[in-house]
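User: My collaborator sent over this chain with a note saying "see what the structure looks like." That's all I know about it. Can you take a look?
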Amino acid sequence: MWDYTDKVKELFKNPLNVGEIENPDAVGEVGSIICGDALRLTLRIDKKTQKIIDAKFKTFGCASAIASSSALTEMIKGMTVDEASKVTNQDIANYLGGLPEEKMHCSVMGMEALEVAIANYRGAPPKKEMIGEEKIICKCFSVTDKKIIRAIKENNLRTVEEVTHFTKAGGGCGKCKPEIEKLLKEYWAKESTKEVHFAEAPKKKLTNLERITLIRETVEREIRPSLKADGGDIELVDVDRNKVFVRLLGTCMGCPAGGFTLKELVENKLKEFVDQDIIVEEVKE
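Assistant: Without extra context I'll predict from the sequence alone. Here is the result:
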């Protein structure tokens, strides 16, 4: 039995924006009924302001798929196209108060449908590589290597099981699991090399602007992916010499382990990549 949040249950039982916009300005279709999940997203966009004024969906799938699709349409209404293009699957999951790990692929499906719809509106191909350049890894669900690598990168995935939760790859016959394991090892081996090179770079005295820029880069590269993988997030509020002020968001906000997260993850990463003298303080108001 999945442990669904009240928000997921609410949007499953009473989904919002179900249906299809007549003569839509943008259409995004992803998934396949044969593979178990499919989503058709239609948008109405104000040409003058570039704002999404209406969004509707039709979904074939489970409770999480319906709730994720409904959440997506609610989130993006009122956004500009550019703002909507930055919505991630973690944003959808956070809006729902979290999803079971085994159902994270539903939020990914919503994000992908939105990307396809925006590309359709702009008259451009989606930002992912063309299917002809990709290799099908999971034949049961038609999941490519590029989709798996993207999920690994954006959600900080470390195990085959996590990849299955986010992409469904490996969730059928299981024959593709060794290939998924290989992709995981190759990706993290490359990332490890990047980290070593970065850590070994000679230290120099930083200007205030360089210091703040490096702090921002470290938060985005080293800290946010780990927090977002568990439904949390972090906002850089201010920097005052060796003090860095941050605000915890999502599931991290008000979490009993927040102090541990600040010291063991946030502060330690900033000490490692920026300056050993850095002290991190949480802003709660």
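A starting point for your reply to your collaborator: Confidence is low (pLDDT under 50) at residues 128-132.
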